[in-house]
Every structure is written in structure tokens, then in C-alpha cells.
């Protein structure tokens, strides 16, 4: 099987987050040598540098949203950059940045799928469901809203990115590792019919069965997008995030998750988001994230 050509796209902003610091995530991943590590695996890796957008004004919410104009501008830039790489036949890896940026990257993947007649499957690896709206959000932080916005439940500035509203249907998502859902959000995810494999599910059936279920139906016509929020990981191994939630996947569970995705051979686009070096210890979370991304691209102990 042909190895993918990979393009790294840095998006240095914490515009949608509740803590400063995710803007430093792209550089932390580069310090952890993400480009060299993937290149050593035989991949054609190009670092496209960083996108540019408005500074974080650090203002309170307005009509239920913090920094909506700035979030929209950053996501439009992400959308165009990711779509351009997909159009060239390359695999875009977005180095975030906070998770609001997935509105841009996933809407780009959805647009690409419409153009190529492919099915989209999104694996959302996260501690949070990220399905809040302006009326139920406790904070107004848009990094808690990207799934809702992608499914058409949000402001037009975000739901219309990519030229179609909604950008995707809820059934494209498989959310894995969820363990923190706000009270009002619980009703919304149920009404939307989102498929969620929370930590209780993983505890009961194990990561192998969970991933088999999440990947069921992925075939040669599927564009597989992985949106990897680093707070998916248990904070005992990944402290470098702004929104830690105890009880996440262990190192080995996380490795198995990535290895089983790699086994499909269908990975076509990737987000790495919410890495916050301000909370990290000697860049250990960035190094772990890169380690897991190597597994996602097929690194394994034995030839399989």
C-alpha cells in the first residue's frame, strides 16, 4: 500500500479555549520532532508552517459566544489550507491550537468527500462531547461547540464554512473516550443521535471491541478523519492540556486505539489539538502525542 504524503499545518491560536497556551501547541509538537519522526517512517513530510489569524482578545462572551468573529476567521483559514492539501492528494495534519479549529478541518474533509463521492467517518478522540450551544454553554468557549456547529447547530459564521449547512450529519461521528458532558449537553447529544463510546463503555468491553465498533463500515470508499484532542488521554500520562479529566485511556489503550486505526489503511486527515505546553512537564505530553501519531501512521512492534 502506498504511503501517504503528509502536510503539517500549524494553527497557533487558543481563540476558542478557556485557558491561554494552546497557541504554543504547534511549536511543542515540532520540538518533539513530529516531522523527523514521521519522515523516518518513510513518509513524505512537508511542514507548511503556521497559518495566521487574529490575536486572542480575551473578552467575555457576547450572545453566548466568546470571540466569534475571530474563531470564524481562523476556521476559514484552516478550511482553505486543509482543503488545498486534500485537493493535492496529500494528508493534512493540523497542529493545533484548540479544538474549535476542527470546524475548519472537518468541514474541509466533508467538502472533499462531496467532491470525490466518498463517505466521511470522523473519530473524535476526546474527554468531552464538544456539542454545546450558546444557550447551554457554561462558559461561551467555542472549543466546546465544534461538533454542534458542524452538525448545523450554531451561528451561521461557523455552520456555513465550506459552503454547506450542516457540514456533516451526526452519524459521521464516533466519539471515543468521553467522560465529561455538561448537563444541558447530555440532552443535545441524545437528540442528535451521536454515537458515543464513553469511558464506561471502554471499561465494560475494552478498547479492542470499542474500536471494532467505531470502525465498522469503514471501507475503500471511506475518508477517515481523526480529531485527536490530547485531553482524550488520562492526565496521569498527559498533563499538558487545559481541561484535564481523570479516568481517561491508559498508554496501552491509547496505543491500541491508534494501531487499530492504522490497520484500516484509511486515515486521510488528522487534527492534533488542545496541547498546552503551559501545563506540561518538559514537553512530555507533546512527546507522547507524537509517539501515538507514529502508531496512527503504522508504527508497530512487529511487521503485521
Automatic annotation (TrEMBL):
One of its GO terms (molecular function) is arginase activity. Its cofactor is Mn(2+). It comes from the Bacteria. GO terms for cellular component: cytoplasm. PROSITE patterns: ARGINASE_1, ARGINASE_2. GO terms for biological process: arginine metabolic process; urea cycle. It holds the Pfam family Arginase. It is an enzyme of class 3 (hydrolase). Mn(2+) 1 binds at residues 99, 128, 130, 229, 231. Mn(2+) 2 binds at residue 126. Pathway: Nitrogen metabolism; urea cycle; L-ornithine and urea from L-arginine: step 1/1. Binds 2 manganese ions per subunit. InterPro entries: Arginase (IPR014033), Ureohydrolase (IPR006035), Ureohydrolase_dom_sf (IPR023696), Ureohydrolase_Mn_BS (IPR020855). PANTHER family: ARGINASE. This is Arginase. It comes from Fulvimonas soli.
Amino acid at each position: 500500500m502506498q504511503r501517504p504524503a503528509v502536510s503539517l499545518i500549524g494553527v497557533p491560536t487558543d481563540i476558542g479555549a478557556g485557558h491561554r497556551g494552546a497557541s504554543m501547541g504547534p511549536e511543542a509538537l515540532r520540538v518533539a520532532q513530529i516531522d523527523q519522526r514521521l519522515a523516518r517512517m518513510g513518509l513524505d513530510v512537508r511542514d507548511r508552517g503556521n497559518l495566521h489569524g487574529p490575536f486572542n482578545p480575551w473578552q467575555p462572551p457576547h450572545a453566548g459566544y466568546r470571540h466569534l468573529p475571530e474563531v470564524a476567521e481562523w476556521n476559514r483559514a484552516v478550511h482553505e489550507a486543509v482543503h488545498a492539501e486534500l485537493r493535492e492528494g496529500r494528508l493534512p495534519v493540523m497542529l493545533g491550537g484548540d479544538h474549535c479549529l476542527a470546524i475548519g478541518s472537518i468541514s474541509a474533509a466533508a467538502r472533499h468527500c462531496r467532491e470525490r463521492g466518498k463517505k466521511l467517518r470522523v473519530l473524535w478522540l476526546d474527554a468531552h462531547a464538544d456539542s454545546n450551544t450558546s444557550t447551554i454553554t457554561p462558559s461561551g468557549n467555542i472549543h466546546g461547540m465544534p461538533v454542534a456547529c458542524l452538525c448545523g447547530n450554531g451561528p451561521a459564521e461557523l455552520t456555513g464554512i465550506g459552503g454547506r449547512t450542516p457540514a456533516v450529519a451526526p452519524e459521521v461521528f464516533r466519539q471515543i473516550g468521553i467522560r465529561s458532558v455538561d448537563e444541558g449537553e447530555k440532552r443535545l447529544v441524545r437528540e442528535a443521535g451521536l454515537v458515543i463510546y464513553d469511558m464506561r463503555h471502554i471499561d465494560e468491553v475494552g478498547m479492542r471491541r470499542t474500536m471494532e465498533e467505531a470502525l465498522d463500515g469503514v471501507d475503500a470508499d471511506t475518508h477517515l478523519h481523526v480529531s485527536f484532542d490530547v485531553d482524550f488521554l488520562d492526565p496521569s500520562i498527559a498533563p499538558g492540556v487545559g481541561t484535564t479529566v481523570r479516568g481517561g485511556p491508559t498508554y496501552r489503550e491509547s496505543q491500541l486505539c491508534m494501531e487499530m486505526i492504522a490497520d484500516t489503511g484509511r486515515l486521510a486527515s488528522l487534527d492534533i489539538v488542545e496541547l498546552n505546553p503551559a501545563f506540561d512537564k518538559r514537553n512530555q505530553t507533546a512527546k507522547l502525542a507524537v509517539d501515538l501519531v507514529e502508531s496512527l501512521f503504522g508504527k508497530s512492534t512487529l511487521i503485521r
